């Protein structure tokens, strides 16, 4: 099987040794995706952060030949349980009738204190 990947553009990629997404055969995994804009800014609104995360993650998925409909599992990491509602609503907007298996976990913190949410996804391309 051929292994392909797409970079995230993170300055940590080479030092840590990771990629935004990896495809091996029909399987695609998109790594933890944070709500950062190209200029480095982060919107403080949790729903806006979730939308930005999914925009980046789904862009990487598309780059690897997948579509939203291929997503079988998603994960959310939120810093505050109070943000689960708005973050979850965005997930519903983004995935609609796809209905992937999904997990949301409240964590003590994320790498950047401005981040309220980080997401991951797995997909299988038919």
UniProtKB/TrEMBL annotation:
Signal peptide region: none
Species per Swiss-Prot/TrEMBL record: Nocardioides piscis
The protein's name: RidA family protein
Listed InterPro entries: RutC-like_sf, YjgF/YER057c/UK114
């Amino acid at each position: 099987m051929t292994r392909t990947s797409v970079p995230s553009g993170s300055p940590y990629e080479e030092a840590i040794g990771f990629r935004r997404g990896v495809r091996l055969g029909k399987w695609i995994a998109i790594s933890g995706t944070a709500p950062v804009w190209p200029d480095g800014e982060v919107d403080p609104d949790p729903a806006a952060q979730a939308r930005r995360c999914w925009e980046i993650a789904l862009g990487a998925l598309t780059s690897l030949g997948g579509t939203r409909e291929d997503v079988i599992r998603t994960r959310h990491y939120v810093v505050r349980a109070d943000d689960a509602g708005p973050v979850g609503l965005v997930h519903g907007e983004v995935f609609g009738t796809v209905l992937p298996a999904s997990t949301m976990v409240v964590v003590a913190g994320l790498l950047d204190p401005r981040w309220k949410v980080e997401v991951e996804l797995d997909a299988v391309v038919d």
